[in-house]
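Quick entry, no commentary yet.
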Amino acid sequence: MSAALCRAVLFLALVSSSLAIVIKATNPRPLVLWHGLGDSHSSPGMLQFMDMIKDMHPGIFIHSVYIDPDLENDKKAGFYGNVDEQVAFVSEQLAEIPELEDGFDAIGFSQGGQFLRAYVERYNFPPVNNLITFGSQHMGISDIPACGRFDILCQISRRAAKGAVYSEWAQTNLVQAQYFRDPRNYGAYLEANRFLTSINNERPDSRNATYVKNFASLNKLVLVLFSKDKTVIPPESSWFGSEAIPGDDATSREFYNGESLQQERLSDEKVIIPMRLQPLYLEDWIGLRELDERGDVIFETCEGEHMDIRDCWKPLVQKFAGEQL
């Protein structure tokens, strides 16, 4: 081989190597989305949202989680199914995607947020870097949206639904029942519920240290609340707040040391226990306190009703997703 040819080959090798480095350096961290109730993995709204993120972060790989590839069946799976089995299915799905093997950021819409948190706590392989949840029910829902004053049929149906929510069938087949946390029936919730009590490590005899380790491994947890949310009751569940358990004076003395709870009164009957006064936080059952004390829990508010997202998402996705690797 002539000297000139050797120099040409060496030059091409150096250019190729440099180009590979540049391409790698401008590769955004992948993103995973989990849609909310009544939506599907590739609905027009989800596809539009993904396109807007791709415009914001050119070259980003985005995967939208599905329970069923068929759009209508995927939508139904948001209402009916076993959430534990769904999260396990998604963990296998994500593990099989080569683009995600080094980790990813994640965005959960409404119930998709607590489902992604369940993935982080239980599996987290591949690992989540930043988790953003919009209007999610991290402390469950404590009520079903109210009926009109004179809508008797609605009121009867509402009472029937609440009365059956902790049946074995509901807790393994109705998705929303699996994060229904009724403070007026807290004992039944602890006994019957399998999903929310698990990911919140609420049962003293079955707390899982892996959940703590995995959740605390997040880089950032971004919790987004909708200011006029009437769908999530209470809306503070999006910030790990929950309705107080009526008459639970012993709990107050044990966990709050007689100090003022600084509860936010929603009505004459309901008060909210904020995140930093939750037993879950004070005893750090899931690693939330560790995250917060590091400064890695970010509270954000979107003005409007539930999932009225408008442009509220843009600065959050700009800052907490699509980091160049």
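second:
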Amino acid sequence: MKRGLPWGDQVDVISSDESSSSSSSLHVDVQVNDGTTNFTIDQPPQEFSSEGLLIRTAEVYQEYMKQLLIPTQRGSLIPFTTWMGLGRSIKQLYGQPLHYLTNILLKQWDHLRIGSEDEYTPLDVVIHPCKAEATVWLVEELHRQTTSHHHVAKLWQSDPMRHAFIDSIFPQF
């Protein structure tokens, strides 16, 4: 794993776009403590637009989610009444976030029950807790390993409530 700068050092980033708008690079001065390092980023200026930032954020998010291992040992049976409730319990039990797409899918599965004859029956009575948990982990693995960050960014762009379904990501060291 590469680390460009020590975390304890103060970093000031100064961006300069004095060149013409047709330029395809961005000049950046990075000041770490007393020294200044100059470098140029050869990327088109549109990469720094809000859409470019959203795509980059989705790329970082997807790469991080790919690194998380799916638990192979199941600790205990998790009682649950809804799919979203099961998702919350899984996050607490295993200390891992669930993918944005998994959270959306769990919400959709809960909405599918509205109006059914077993709408008010606890879900762990309808489906065995082990099967339900295994299903969530299977879907989670698919979302982590196969989802394009471009697709995630596109969904985020059209979802004003996306932050409600993106779990906090705080790596434990």
